[in-house]
Every structure is written in structure tokens, then in C-alpha cells.
């Protein structure tokens, strides 16, 4: 019984401690030393601690209350990679200007519009004030600050060049987000346009064709085979639209879940995507650009090559390249050169392997990797622009064929009636 009581007491104490450590938002109104009225928001553990913090800033608090949560999105939107890049740039600029890290965190956090981002930065600042290193504090948020980010920050802290490393990380993340946006544009633009085309076709079949069907029945003539097929499709969609919608949504959700839960299926999808004409080439170039830039950034920051390779695979955006990077890491860890290990994967073009070889021999591997990244990022930009130009007439042709076929099918009986009159 004593043991049970002790466990309950421990749980109660832990819950109380967690509640005390939780950062809460407050709204306050007060005056400064000149008597000027001020108001604002502040995050803290309690009203007393917030009042004390504001008093240290020369503000006499007249009223303070917990900030009410909005009905929707109370926790704030998800922290994005773009926000992490902006935060890294701001922190690097302030530290380069000589502002202490804790104060820099407080300034950056106060300027955040996303409550979740703001609370995260304040929590990291509190951890640093408690004696933890920046790397250890960031490790509490492994989703927002991945292994690669923490490795780079750790290397910067160890070498005493944290501001320079953070600036490099910000540039790296900005470039990575730019290339991701290009890939999304290449993949989603044709998909969205085609989806709209088939949506228009469904609207014609469900709402427009039945009107013509009434005219066809009143005429009493036999319908052409093509028009009859469209009428049957229209009747099926009207009667079983819910089934068609369920099959489409279920198929999409099922494929996504299967991809997330089955590594073999995800690998298959990734390999098929890499073999699609034009789009596959863009995905190859994008993966190589990410591989080269990520490895170049980590290697220049002083992270050992084997350790750097362990964090590079996930940044390529491709399961095939991630697995190839893991094989490269294993080969390098037993003494093979990087260029030889990359050649064995049969994924990296000869130009890339040769430039890596020259970089290894000359001791300028990071410089060569950056040159590779810049070249392939430009190739991705050009390929996406070319793809958009090439796809536009192809997409318009598909829209014309789908919608035009339905329109022709609807008017065929009218042409037939006119010919018999």
C-alpha cells in the first residue's frame, strides 16, 4: 500500500511539475516610467513570473489575464521548414552582431505570428538558461530540428563559429525549400489540371446530359452507339455517384497508407516515379542536388564524413537515393573512397563521380559538392520550366478530347434527326 501511495504521489508530483513548467500566454496592460499606457502579450509559467519579468523591463502592470484561445487553430499552425530557415537567419544575424543567445531567442520569439513556433522558441530559450547547450535544447524538437540540423549546430558550437554555421544552415534550407517547390510544381500542376478536366466531364454527364436525354426520348429515334454509351455512364454516375466518390477517395487514402506503412511498396513507388519520362529525370536531378548540397554543408561545417552521410539520405527526398546513401556510408566507414562508393550505386552520373574524385584528391570536397548542387539545381529549374511549356498543349489536348467527346456525343442525335428531316 505504501508503494502504491508513493507511486501515486510521484505521479501527482510529476503532473504538478509538468503543469508548472508549461509556458502559457498572457495578455497584459500597464504603464512605463513616463506613465505611457502600454499593452501586449507575454508567455510565461505563471502570472507572478510574467509580472516580475515585465517589472524588470520597467513596466508597471495594471492588469494581466490568460490569453483566450481562438475557437479554431488554438494550438497554432504547424511549424514549417520556411519558418525554421527564417529563424536560423535571424538568430545568425543577431549573434554575429554580438547579441547574447538567450536575448536573441527572446527577440526572435516575440516576433513570431505562429503560437506553436513562439512557444517552441521560448521553451528552447528556457532550456538554454537552465545550462543546456543549444544542440541539447533543440533535440527536444526532433521534427522541427532534424539530425542534420542538430549535427551542424553541434559542429558550430564546438568550433566557436555558431553564427556562421546558422547562416549556412539558413541558406541551405532556403535552397532546399526552393527546389521542393519546383518539384511540387512539376508534379501537381498537370495533376490538378487533369482533375479539373474530369470534374467538368462529370458535371456534364450528371447535370447536362440528362436534359438532352429528355429531348432524345421525345424524338423517339434510336440513339447512336457513342451517345448511348454516354447515357449509360450518366445513369450510372447519377445512381452510384457516392460509390464512385468512395472508390476514388478510398483508393487515394489506401495508397497513401500503404506507402507510409510498407517500405517495400514505398520503394516500388519511388523507383517507378524515377523511371517516368521527363518527370523521372527531374526527380533524379533533384535528389542529386539535395545530396550534394547537404553533404557539402555538413562537411564544410566540420562534421565527419561518415556521420554526415548518415544524415544526408533523408534529405534527398527519395527512398532509392536514401538507401543508396546508406550503402555509400557503409562503404566509406570501412575505408573506401567516397567516389568509389558512389560509383557502385549506379545512380550518380559519371560527371558527379569525377567531380567528387577531384574534390577528394585536391582537398576541396565541399567546394566541388557545392558546384554539383548549383549545376543540378539550375538543371531542375530549367527542366521544370520546359516541362510546364511542353505539358500545356498536351493537357489542353486531353481536356479538349474529354470534354469535346461528351459534347459531340450529346449533339450526335440532333445531327441524326436533322439529317432525316
UniProtKB/TrEMBL annotation:
<keyword id="KW-1133">Transmembrane helix</keyword>
<comment type="similarity">
    <text>Belongs to the GSP F family.</text>
</comment>
<feature type="domain" description="Type II secretion system protein GspF">
    <location>
        <begin position="87"/>
        <end position="210"/>
    </location>
</feature>
<dbReference type="GO" id="GO:0005886">
    <property type="term" value="C:plasma membrane"/>
</dbReference>
<dbReference type="GO" id="GO:0015628">
    <property type="term" value="P:protein secretion by the type II secretion system"/>
</dbReference>
<dbReference type="InterPro" id="IPR018076">
    <property type="entry name" value="T2SS_GspF_dom"/>
</dbReference>
<keyword id="KW-0812">Transmembrane</keyword>
<keyword id="KW-0813">Transport</keyword>
<feature type="domain" description="Type II secretion system protein GspF">
    <location>
        <begin position="291"/>
        <end position="413"/>
    </location>
</feature>
<dbReference type="InterPro" id="IPR001992">
    <property type="entry name" value="T2SS_GspF/T4SS_PilC_CS"/>
</dbReference>
<keyword id="KW-1003">Cell membrane</keyword>
<keyword id="KW-0472">Membrane</keyword>
<feature type="transmembrane region" description="Helical">
    <location>
        <begin position="186"/>
        <end position="209"/>
    </location>
</feature>
<dbReference type="Pfam" id="PF00482">
    <property type="entry name" value="T2SSF"/>
</dbReference>
<feature type="transmembrane region" description="Helical">
    <location>
        <begin position="238"/>
        <end position="258"/>
    </location>
</feature>
<feature type="transmembrane region" description="Helical">
    <location>
        <begin position="394"/>
        <end position="414"/>
    </location>
</feature>
<protein>
    <submittedName>
        <fullName>Type II secretion system F family protein</fullName>
    </submittedName>
</protein>
<keyword id="KW-0997">Cell inner membrane</keyword>
<dbReference type="InterPro" id="IPR042094">
    <property type="entry name" value="T2SS_GspF_sf"/>
</dbReference>
<dbReference type="InterPro" id="IPR003004">
    <property type="entry name" value="GspF/PilC"/>
</dbReference>
